[in-house]
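TODO from last week: model Small ribosomal subunit protein uS2.
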Amino acid sequence: MEKTKEVSKKAVTPKAETEKKSLKVQIPELITFLQAGSHFGHKGSAWNPKMKKFIYETRNGVHIIDLVKTRKLLEVALTDLNNIVDKGNVLIVGTKGQAAGLIEKSAKESGAFYITKRWPGGLFTNFDHMRKSIQGLVRMEENLASGGEDLVKKEILLMERQVQRMNKVYEGIKFMDELPKMLIVIDSKVEKNAINEAKIAGIPVLALIDTNCDPDLVDYPIPANDDSIKSISLFVSLFEEVIKDGKKSESLRALRTNHEANLRNLQTRYIEEKERQEKMEEEERLRMKAMREGKTDVQTSGVVRVVKREKNIEEEIAAAEAVKAESNSRKIEDLGLSVRIEKALKESGIETVEDLAGKTKDDLKGIKGVGEKAVEEILKAIK
């Protein structure tokens, strides 16, 4: 019975090994870690007793990390990370100053999610709600790039501020539609909230642990100096090499590139449409101005063409007759003549301007009481 069990184990083990992807990254030699200062820990007074097994010696009151153990644990961690990156994405967290810039640059190039400002509480434990907020951020960016359709200026300003505020926290985790398959932490003591949520969500944690940290809190502890920029840079570059070859990492890089290109296209189309609208409004303004002046007609091409008005003869004749009828119906009193002349005209039977029509100079002189000067005054008044 025991032999049967042994045979079955031998049959299963090679199959499991063939499923693992070989690690292409070369683990640095000890001298590389020494040159980066990865062996320097904290002072003896600030240590965590659980780190004792990873401490080589104490020198001038400072703990020296055993880099042989560091190298072995790093190889184990990178091997498992190498297999995980084909199944899902990785989240790298490092919010302290010396790590933030390195992590952001590395995560963008490799195709990993990253958080460098502050840990958003509930990212893992309340993921559904956080995912909606992140998706809302992407939609707001697209809306703003399109010019904020259906929004007034104040609403656009408020949205811009909200996007800036949200990007400080969520910029590195856009398009995170599911929980990451691994959490990488640079300082396990600083990022304790992220580690606690990862443990609740069942996400494995890989972390650099200095001599003041608790190695039992993480699944893949890598004892090393987590304060030196050189040391952090060395490990981050190794993580980057492994993550970059992952299938999911390639998809994330493509998503980010497409999103940026989409925002640029939306912005370009908005600017072009705005310029077109402004041009049309200006042409319409000039056209209306020209129409009011009755001189020109502004074409959409911006060329001004002089247009002659077509005369409507019938309308003009009717208008002339109306003016003539109105003039003829006026009374003598409306001409503004002197009282003496008005009296002389009325006594001769002339009451309206129409009665004067056709009268010659001699006819007017023949009227009693109308002399040469009176005739000139009458003719001048009826013109």
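Done. The domain at 22-268 is CATH 3.40.50.10490 (Rossmann fold).
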